Amino acid sequence: MGVIDELLVKWEEAGFFSYLLPFLLIFALVFGILTKVNIFKDNKAVNGIIALAVALMSLQFSFVSDFFSQIFPRLGVGLAIILGILILVGLFMDPGSNAINYILLGIGVIVFGAVLIQSASAIGWESGQWWSDNWQVIIGAIFIVIIIIVIIGGSGTKKTPQPFNPNLWK
What domain range is 69 assigned to? Predict the structure, then answer.
């Protein structure tokens, strides 16, 4: 085992990954949201106290640590899949195309959904089992909705081509 492995093991034993990182993440998210929403005007002390209380209360039970330990490794794999797809699309297709952007968005949503469903199933949420049993129906329904949207969007008025006017180029 190398030096970095030993360091990571010591951090894990000290609760760095189970408590400190989730605390910092939740604190930063709550503080950022409260600052952006601007409920308490420019009173950052109140935002900080609320963010601190929420972050500390979220670590009262091991639920948050368990959830984070399940979702973030899967999210890393999902991001690697999306990155690989982006590289292939950049090599072989025009990444500026709107159709490609929508397809990539759809792939990203599917990967994110799979990450959430797998994480929910791993920590014992009942919805994880429901998704496992019914994912085919959901995908079919989404596919039908997409087809309906494409048909409705494609049935709009078509632009008629204008005749060539040589005077425009003079």
Answer: 65-153
